[in-house]
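Quarterly update from the structural biology core.
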Amino acid sequence: MNLAAAANENLAHTSNVLIYSAMAVYTLAFLAHITEWVFGSRSAVGRTAAAITSEAGRAASAVTVQVKKAGGGTAVLERPKVVTRSAPGSRADVPDGPGAAGTSEKGDLYGRIAISLTVLSFALHAGGVLTRALSVERAPWGNMYEFSTTFGMCAVGVYLGLLAAKKNVRWLGLPVVLTILLDLGLAVSVLYTESAQLVPALHSYWLWIHVSCAILSGAALYVGAVSTFFYRLRDGYEVRLAAGKTGPGVLEKKFRGLSADAPLSMRMGVRIHMAYDNALTRLPASATLDKFGYRINATVFPLWTFTIIAGAIWAEAAWGRYWGWDPKEVWSFITWVAYASYLHARATAGWKGRKAAYLALAAFACYIFNYYGVNFLFGGKHSYSGV
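Predicted structure, tokenized:
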């Protein structure tokens, strides 16, 4: 065994150790985020009481003024109650939630611990990707294992970048960390491939350009998809809130109103509904989530467009044609059409809100299928790198 090969094997082993270490720290960050949400739920009682007290205070805030009449009598004038309403069909006046930790100081502490652990795990994760690249002296995305690990690193990087930019995205911490754990778990258990050189057709500078753009696009589109998914959940909560089916004290009153012989399943159902709505109250308002997801998708769409164009240019250089209806090419185009339809729907009357959100989620599902489904179910020229 020559020295170069030994060095490569050592770097590949170091990469594996760093990836497993990152997974361990991601797990700790996940538990810290869970604790943050649990302490946040405990502060719900205080927020509910405050909301009820505030409502009572507004009812008692009416001011009466006595005015003397010319004939010696008095007339009582009441200050009119000012009601602000949003435009028909909108709920722009609904405020953002207090965040995962709610008003709990302990919850906020655990949230900060979770972020610190996420930063540490991101550093270990990035080290694992870098040493994998150094072990073979090429881009670290030549197969599905490497693509998955780099994708996860970029997704966490997008989340931490938004935090560094002072964006209100701490609510993203739990779903991001959970998803990355699943992504890395699948990568090391199912998709793992030994560090090795690629076939000659993939030795091109376009590997750095085309695939890196695909990874960055997917990582950002993932964040947009999570925001859109939570928009649907929060939107449903706000609909129930407007209908008086939930809100401060509503479900608590329903639970206390259950008869003593009420089935256990009914009691558990109300409890679960209370916990579910309690979590949703801490998310940003649906309008905020919808706008955030749209901005992410609209910003990344040009990069995804360039990804397809770069792939076509590379295909012409490698295979002598720009487009050959390869399964990966077809589903990349389907994904592009799906996101283009979503962006067009956002600008079309009657398609904003829920309908557009369904399109955004369907578009990201196309991206995921393009990565996993096409690679496992279909052949084609993009199967050079194998799994």
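The two ends are 27 Å apart (CA to CA).
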